[in-house]
Amino acid sequence: MDEGERSYLDAGAQRDDAIDPRTSFRESAAVSDPTVYERFTETWPDAWRRAAACLEWDRDPQTVLGGEPPAYEWFPDGRLNAAVNCVDRHVETRPNQLAVRWVGRRGEQRSYTYADLSRAVNAAAAGLRELGVDAGDVVTLYLPMIPELPVAMLACARLGAVHNVVFAGLSAEALAARLDAADSTVLITCDGYYRRGDAFNQKSRADTARVRSEVDLAATVVVDRLGDALEVSLGPDEVDYGALCASHEGTTVDPVTRRATDRLFVMYTSGTTGQPTGVEHTTGGYLSHVAWTTRTVLDVRPTDTYFCAADIGWVTGHSYGVYGPLAVGTTVLMDEGFSDTPDRIAERIDRHDVTVFYTSPTTIRSLVKRGAAALEEYDCSSIRLLGTVGESITPETWHWYRDHVGDGETPVVDTWWQTETGAILLATLPGVTPMKPGAVGPPLPGIDALVVDEDGDPVDPGEPGVLTLTAPWPGMCRGRHAGDDRTRTGDDRTRETDWVETDDGWRYRTGDRAVVDEDGYVRILGRVDDVLKASGTRFSVGTLEAAIVGVDGVVEAAAVTDDRGAIVAYVVTRSDGRPRADHREAIAAAVETDVVAAAVPDQIVFTTDLPKTRSGKVMRRLLADVARDEALGDVSALRNPEIVGEIASAVREDASTPE
Ligand code: AMP
Predict the structure, then answer these.
(1) Among 262, 307, 418, 656, which one has the highest count of C-beta atoms within 10 angstroms of its own C-beta?
(2) Is 40:446 a contact under the CB 8 Å cutoff?
(3) Is residue 415 within 6 Å of ligand 1 at its C-beta?
(4) CA of residue 148 to ligand 1 center, whole Å
(5) 539 Cα: distance to centroid of ligand 1 (angstroms)
(6) How far is the CA of 134 from the centre of ligand 1 (A)?
(7) Is 536 helix (H, G, I), strand (E, B) or coil?
(8) Cα–Cα separations (whole angstroms), residue 389 to 142, 320, 357, 392, 432
């Protein structure tokens, strides 16, 4: 354990006071019976039937868990359609309830009742069917936060097609790689969207991707987001989304029944190799797990106005921005401009009477930075539950969130999960489990977690190790693939990486370092591998560093995050640490183009060398300590110990330089 980890743990240990759920919340919570944990343990895996019971099935599953470990199959003989579960069944009971309230970057508003959503989804499904989309085909969606994105996802689901959403901020190269890897049939994109006030041409980026991609698309569908603000012309194999849907207005498309184990979507995420990995999620297991956790952890109910601040381009937006809340049948607020002004949360809560709000610590930190006074003119009293996800939250930030966005007693759920896990696995149940700020909580009922050392042996409470899961869960991905290298969970490659067999059975390796306390609460310490998380976006350190090194005049780069999650890049330039005047901008531009805007370093420190071991390995841990202003310990084993002092003073100087 390094110094940084130790001081973090000590700080946590001092604040381990558990906070009980408030009584008024407990009384109306979706789960308020503390025996739920034992009941899951006693009847596992059957206990997971209650998640399946959140859905409407075409054929009820008789078997809960099948498959050959670790290629587990959840509810394998069940059949269902995801769009029926997220739309049709609510239309039957509450057609006029608001399903999606959308606010555009220019303040435009569009509202969809469940009946409106059904009409939009059916028309889009009919349009896609006309273009030849069939069950099992992959449709790639490269769209910003506009209603057409969830509508297209649900249209795919209605047809039994698999959607592959690519975050709209990703580059043409990234889109091309994902079009190819997923073997896409159709691409849906848009003319453009507003980005920091300007009309950004998304279509030209999609055009570049199509030239680079090797797949033979049946069609490209283009949503007209910007109207007159951006003129784009459509080629012969390009179709206007509005016209396509209008030609099928009023059509009803019969939902295609799917096996529970059939793919609902694929989502690409960064792995350690830098190559995007396609994570495949199932129709039955995934949807059951997200519906159940939306109800029990986020406590969302149909009468809520629920706001998940994550972009739908990432897994949080899929699970808790679209599928979970719509499966529960609530009203979802969708805000296109959120990423430009995350510090204006209170305005949104006030204006839309948001009752449940789910966001990342990055957003909360931007609020903290703006100060409590900026929230005062807004009324956030509608809030009844707050959630956080994506990175560790410090106890200070947790309390700030609860005190200033909540009323000081609002339940706050810190939820841990991953793209691969599909849905929340570690969190408190807000009506049952006491909260410990800074710890994500114990595993949910039905989930078994174990922190182990490098040999796979369990560590004692209080000792850090690697977080593993010792039992499968319904939302688990059914397979992963990188390019043509397609594997199911349980195939050799996935076995080597995600699941390992031990004398005590199969274990899923999360890739996170964690520590568990005497009460079973887990505190996440960060990633084991070279993966960085910033602004809720995961990318590999290698990809980020490669983008920086690709800038003319840069010879070496190493990236780390500081204690607030900000990215610090240490960069060696050819002119011996003396950067060119435009180097900072060039690096930012390269990262934005090659990786993603969220990966642009918050701080760039130019140096003459990087600290290296005698075998030439860059000591990123040490660089992280410098960024975090931590004690550095013994550096004598380095090949170039003198560089550490130089870097530390460069960081201090840089921090004191006014912008
Ligand atoms: P992604 O799959 O991109 O959503 O990233 C998953 C990773 O985010 C996890 O492996 C953790 O490293 C981190 N993470 C997610 N939720 C939390 C949380 N509540 N606390 C700390 N880290 C988290």
Answers:
(1) 307
(2) yes
(3) yes
(4) 28
(5) 12
(6) 34
(7) coil
(8) 24, 11, 11, 8, 20
Long-range contacts of 10-13 (CB under 8 A, 24+ apart): 11/395, 12/395, 12/438, 12/439, 12/523, 13/462, 13/517
Pocket test for ligand 1, best of 266, 318, 393, 418 (most atoms within 8 A of CB): 418
**Which neighbouring-strand residues pair with 481?**
278, 486
Tokens 């059509």 found at: 251
Residues 78/515, Cβ–Cβ less than 8 Å: no
For a mutational test of ligand 1's pocket, the pick from 311, 416, 440, i.e. the residue with the most ligand atoms closer than 8 A to its C-beta, is 416
What is the average per-residue pLDDT within 389-405?
Answer: 93
* For residue 617, pLDDT beyond 50: yes
Report the separation in Å between the CA atom of 418 and the middle of ligand 1, taken as the mean of its atom positions.
Answer: 6
Q: How far is the CA of 50 from the centre of ligand 1 (A)?
A: 26
Distance of alpha carbon 402 from alpha carbon 450, whole angstroms? 29
* HSE toward the beta carbon, residue 566, CA cutoff 13 A: 11
Report the alpha-carbon angle 505-509-515, nearest 5. 105
Evaluate: CB of 512 within 6 angstroms of ligand 1. Answer: yes
417 C-alpha vs ligand 1 centroid, how far in Å? 6
**Ligand 1 atom showing the smallest separation from residue 388 Cα:** 19
What pLDDT, on the 0 to 100 scale, is given for residue 452?
Answer: 96
Q: What is the pTM of this model?
A: 0.87
pLDDT at 378: 95
Asked if the peptide bond before residue 601 counts as cis, ω within 30 degrees of 0, the response is: no
Check if 389 has its Cβ closer than 6 Å to any atom of ligand 1: yes
pLDDT at 632 over 90: no
| Residue 245 contacts residue 131 (beta carbons within 8 Å) | no
Query: Is residue 538 in contact with ligand 1, taking CB distance under 6 Å?
Result: yes
Contact assessment for residue 241 and residue 224, using Cβ atoms and an 8 Å cutoff? yes
CA 288 from chain centre, in angstroms, equals 18
Measured from the Cα of 526, ligand 1's closest atom is: 12
Would you say the CB of residue 315 lies under 6 angstroms from ligand 1?
yes
- What tokens were used for 81? 């359609």
310 lines ligand 1 (CB under 6 A): no
Bond from prior residue into 70 cis (ω within 30 degrees of 0): yes
Q: At what angle do helices 202-212 and 172-182 cross, to 10 degrees?
A: 50
In total, the chain counts a number of residues equal to: 659
- Where does the pLDDT of residue 659 fall: very low under 50, low under 70, confident under 90, or very high at 90 and above? very low
Determine whether the shortest distance from the Cβ of 523 to ligand 1 is under 6 A: no
How many A from CA of 533 to the centre of ligand 1? Answer: 8
Note if the bond before 442 is cis, omega within 30 degrees. no
Range 410-432 burial, b when 16+ CB lie within 10 A, else e: bbbbbbbbbbbbbbbbbbbbbbb
- Dist. CA 35–CA 232, nearest whole Å: 59
The pLDDT value recorded for residue 341 is 85
Residue with tokens 């944990």: 37
- To test ligand 1's pocket by mutation, which of 277, 308, 389, 419 has the most ligand atoms within 8 angstroms of CB? 389
Q: Is 527 in the pocket of ligand 1 (CB under 6 A)?
A: yes
Q: 154 falls in which pLDDT band (50, 70, 90)?
A: very high
Residues forming beta bridges with residue 512, ordered by sequence position: 527
DSSP state of 59: B
Ligand 1 touching residue 440 (CB < 6 A): yes
In whole angstroms, what is the distance from residue 190 CA to residue 172 CA? 14
Distance of CA 556 to the CA centre of its chain: 30
Domains of the chain by residue range = 530-656
Q: Which CATH superfamily is domain 530-656 in?
A: ANL, C-terminal domain (3.30.300.30)
